[in-house]
Design a protein that fits this description.
- The chain has 469 residues and is of the alpha+beta class.
- It has three domains: 297 residues, 2-enoyl-CoA Hydratase, Chain A, domain 1 (Alpha-Beta Complex); 90 residues, Pdz3 Domain (Roll), CATH 2.30.42; 47 residues, no CATH class.
- 25% of the residues lie in helices and 25% in strands.
- The chain is built from eleven helices and 24 strands.
- Strands 1-13-14-15-18-19-22 form a seven-stranded mixed sheet, sandwiched between helices.
- Strand 14, helix 7 and strand 15 form a beta-alpha-beta unit.
- It is globular and about 75 Å long.
Length: 469
Amino acid sequence: MPTKKTTKKPVKKVARKPTASKKPSMPKYLGVIILILVFGVGLVFGGVWGKGTNSGTAIASADVPVDASADGVTKSVSKIVKDLYSDRSSDEVSFELFWEIWNTVKARHVDQEVTDEDLFYGALEGMVASLDDPYSVFLPPEPADNFIQSLEGEEFSGIGAEIGIRETLLTIIAPLPDSPAENAGIRAGDTVLSVDDEDMYGVSVEEAVKKIRGKKGTEVVLTVIHKGDNAPQDITIVRGDIKVPTILWEMLDDNIAHVRVSHFNQNTWREFDEVIKEVLRESPNGFILDMRNNPGGYLDTAIMVASEWVTEGVIVKEKLFDGTERIHNSSGRHRLKDIPTVVLINEGSASGSEIVAGALQDYAKATLVGATSFGKGSVQDFNVFDDESALKLTIAKWFTPLDRAIDKEGIVPDIEIEKQFVTKYEQETGEEPPDRQEDPENEGEYLEDDVDRELVDLVLEKATELLTK
């Protein structure tokens, strides 16, 4: 196992310029369609998604005031529906039925008062949910605010884990380093069966986020099945303040740089640029780009990171819903193009990290080590409306420079390592370490033994081995 020459160096936080808006945490991207690259996961303290350029297909933003007045909402919505569909007859759709159900629910539901705002936003959520696409969603103002704050690297209260949907099952993509989730025993690949005894089968990422988030110091119980296990178990997690980490780095033996990129948020590029400058001062013999459990983020950031190795040509292809193709090419200074590189990925690597890994693999700029990535290669437009609600809609899919599909396929590493971590005991003996014996005199404590249970990172070991040959 490589020894470290220096301690890990967290990159200094880069101050974010405040944006002008009604609320400091909610930028007013009025009328702007932000093309975003998303993993399709939510950080369970608000959701993390990727943002790219201001390109993409525009989504019409109707001016729909949502005020406290029931008549105000009803009249506004009614007018829009009539304007849009008065000249579009359909044998399949009756908007008279919509309003009949609206009025019936308001008049007769047992739990009164039913607010127009709840019905209005609920109808919009249901409309997008009918697409049966876990990555397309309508977000009312508060969830939309949380979503955007998480992109900006704000601090949240929650458990600190990315979640996604895999074959209709709610799945832990990755717990954040040293988060309440990780410390409680949540692992990448866990299937979440329920949250506080509420069944999670078939729920959207956003619905799950709402259930799992909460105030600092409160508890939430996740019933999960660890990958490879059969029996479910309850894991109690105490929510805490979560700050999304971006980059950590260290110099290993043999002058090899190990750079961990955990997300591609708005601070990542500036921090990565800063790290490159510091690493180059060390004249490294090799570079390990560690994107394990990286769920993705901003498209532009992923392209700029990949461009540090790829001097020219395509980084990623975007195939849109209308059959057209948009090409995203290399840019930047290519400062790492001549440095031997190994990229680390696993089943928690997705979206933006898959774009970077796929490009470096296609151009033979790096050897990929680890496990096949998640396979999240679809593209969402993100549109914030003037009431601060938002629509995230799938419009395209990503392909690598050699036209390999990312969505549902993932990136297969050049060297696959099934088991990422083992104890030193297992590495030396080939056997699992024996169970620790409980101390009969001290409840919850264990007797000391001579079994070495220190974890060994087999993926990182393989990377350093490749770079020191």
